[in-house]
Amino acid sequence: MALLAAHGGSTEALLATITAFIEQQAAAADAPEAVDVDQMTQLPTTVAKSADKAMAKAVAARAAQAEAAAGGEGSGVDVGTLCKHSGCDNKYAAEASMGAACVHHPGVPVFHEGLKYWSCCPAKKMTEFADFMSYAGCTTGGCEFATQEEIAATPKPCRYDFYQYGDCLAISIYAKVADPMRCTFAASGKQLKVMVTFGFSNKFELDVQLEHAIRPQESKVEFMAPKIEIVLKKASGDTWAELGKVAEKSSLC
Ligand SMILES: [Zn+2]
Ligand SMILES: [Zn+2]
Questions:
Q1: What is the model's pLDDT at position 172?
Q2: Ligand lying nearest the CA atom of residue 103
Q3: Which of 42, 136, 214, 247 is deepest in the core (most CB within 10 A)?
């Protein structure tokens, strides 16, 4: 109403004022970001149908799991979870597994000058890794299984690699159930910055000083079911021996 009064009701003048106001707001919103990313370009992303489906399936499975947990049933341990104790191969099958005999080594592995042994069994030093791994436990007790909560509280690492074809360099990031809405991919001619959120609570960051120059404007990202593929357009025909100087970080979000 104040705007209307100020412009004496002229629709054109009012529109011009509103347009200017919107542009001003947009410029103000963009400004800090432009400084932050340091001339980095956000790479365009597409999401394959298979990735959409995998995400929907994971969300449904997670909801079912949460519902089961809310019902007070079970211990919060996933069936198939391996016992935490060294040397024990028991897997969680049901509540009853908690009572199974747990033959294990309470000590820690010691690797020294080619010899391998358990700190709780120092008399038995071995040279073969397989012998060390299968050396029977010295203590019997109850198994202990990590709960879903404990597993969720541990950041999961994220594997990645790269390959080349034509004038492109493709980086595959094996992030299961990645959320496209919570991922960012930015690149300049010589740098790539990636932030991927996956498995609902894991964050993986990659900051690469690229070995050779790229064309960010012609580069892109695609979400596929088992991985995310970043395709960088090479600025020259060089074959890359390595990705460049890489800094990576896994955390919870
Ligand atoms: Zn032992
Ligand atoms: Zn055990």
A1: 92
A2: 2
A3: 214
Amino acid residing at 144: E
Q: Give the pLDDT confidence score for residue 183 in this predicted structure.
A: 96
78 C-alpha vs ligand 2 centroid, how far in Å?
Answer: 15
Domain ranges in the chain are: 39-61+155-252, 95-146
Ligand nearest to the CA of 140: 2
Instruction: Count the residues in the chain.
Output: 253
Who's near 19: CB < 8 A, 6+ residues apart?
none
The pLDDT assigned to 21 comes to 63
Handedness of CA 78, 62, 222, 225 (dihedral sign): positive
Q: Could you check whether 39-61+155-252 and 95-146 share the same CATH topology?
A: no
Distance from the alpha carbon of residue 93 to the mean position of ligand 1, in angstroms: 25
Residues with CB under 5 A from ligand 2 (ion): 83, 85, 88, 90, 102, 143
Give the right CATH number for 39-61+155-252 from 3.40.1390.10, 2.60.40.790, 3.30.70.270, 1.10.443.10. 2.60.40.790
- Taking the domain 95-146, which CATH number applies? 4.10.1130.20
pLDDT at 19 (0 to 100):
64
In whole angstroms, give the CA distance from residue 19 to residue 4.
14
Which residues of the chain fall short of a pLDDT of 70?
1-11, 13-38, 69-75, 94-98
- The Å distance, Cα 84 to ligand 1 centre, comes to 15
